[in-house]
Amino acid sequence: MCGIAGLIHRGKSSNVGGEMTAMLQALKHRGPDSTGYAVYGPRSDDYVMRVKVAEAEDMAKGRGITQVLADRIAAVDAVLAEHGATVKSKEAVTAYSLRYVIGHDGNTGDMAEHIEETDGVEILSMGNGLELIKDLGDASVVADLYGLNDFTGTHGIGHTRMATESDVDIKSAHPYWAFPYNDVSVVHNGQITNYWIMRREMERKGHRFMSNCDSELLAVYVAHNLSKGVSLEDTLRQSIEEIDGVFTYLVATKDQLGMAKDTMAAKPLVLYESDDLIAMASEEVAIRAILPQEIDTYDPYDEEVRVWQA
C-alpha cells in the first residue's frame, strides 16, 4: 500500500522536517514498516553525506558488532582521506548511522564507489542540500531518532512503507538517492512491471543499484536523464511512456519538486497549491495535518506531470 508525501515552499525556508513528520505520521496506517525523508536545507559548497554502516539485523548480533562498526567507520574515514576530502564535521547519529560534512574538489562518484566497497557500508545520500534519512518505525520514531523535527529547508519528500516484495530493512526503505548524482531523490507508490528490463539497461550505462526494490529504478532513471541535460518535466513525461506499471511518484532535486502518474492513475495522490506552498500526499489527511484550516485540494489525473520551483 505505502504512503508518499511532499511539499515545497516558494521563495522561503520553513520547518520542513516538522511538517514532513506530521504528514508522514498521518499516513502511518499505509505503511508501518519503515519511514524515510529526503529534506533539502540551505545549499552549500560542502557536501553532506549520510552513511549507514549496519542494518537492524546486524545490531541484534550482540557485543561483537561494536568492533565491526568501528572498523567500518574507520574504513570510511580512510577512503575520505585517500580521496583528499576534508572532514569538517562527523556525527554518529545512531550506532549505525553517521552524518558527515566534507569538502571535496575531486570526483565524488569515484569516492562514493570506493566508500561502498567496504562490506556493510551504504551511502544513503550525498549532496549540497539533500539529506536523506530512513529507518525502521513510524515517523515519530524516526524523527526523534534523527532530530528531524526542527530541520529547516525549502522542500522535502517522504514515504511510509509496507513491505510487499522486498525485505523490511533500511536498504529497501524509501526515499532513494540517485547515486552518484547530487541532490536527486525519489519516493514511489506502485509497482513497475518492466523493472528488470529497465534496470539492466541502466546498469549497461554504468549505473549501480543498492537494492532490489523497483522504486530505486525511478531515481536512477531520473538522474540519468538529468545528467544528459533533459529537464525534470520532460524526464517525468518520458517516464510515463517508457516505464510500465501502476505508479505515482515524487521527485525532488536541489530546487524543484515534481510528480508523475501513470496512464491508469490507480495510485492515489491529493494535491494542494497556493502562492507560497505546494503540498501533496497519498491521502488528504496528511495535508490537513499541516493545514488544518479549510482548503481546496484536487486529485491529479492520469498521465499528469507537474513541476514546482522552490
User: What count of helical segments does DSSP give?
Assistant: 9
Report the β-strand fraction as a percent range.
25-35%
Helix content: 25-40%
The average pLDDT score comes to 92
**Measured on Cα atoms, how large is the radius of gyration?**
18 Å
Widest beta sheet: strand line-up: 7-2-8-1-14-13
Low-confidence stretches: none
Shape: globular
Which SSEs are present, and which pair or pack?
Blueprint (H helix, E strand, L loop, with lengths): L2 E7 L6 H11 L7 E7 L6 E6 L3 H4 L5 H18 L3 E9 L2 E7 L4 H8 L6 E6 L2 E7 L2 H8 L8 E7 L14 E2 L7 E8 L2 H10 L10 H13 L4 H11 L2 E8 L3 E6 L8 E4 L3 E5 L2 H5 L16 E5 L1
Antiparallel strand pairs: 1-8, 1-14, 2-7, 2-8, 3-5, 3-6, 4-5, 9-10, 10-11, 11-12, 12-15, 13-14
Helix pairs in contact: 6-7, 7-8
Keywords:
310 residues; five-stranded antiparallel sheet; 9 helices; 30% strand
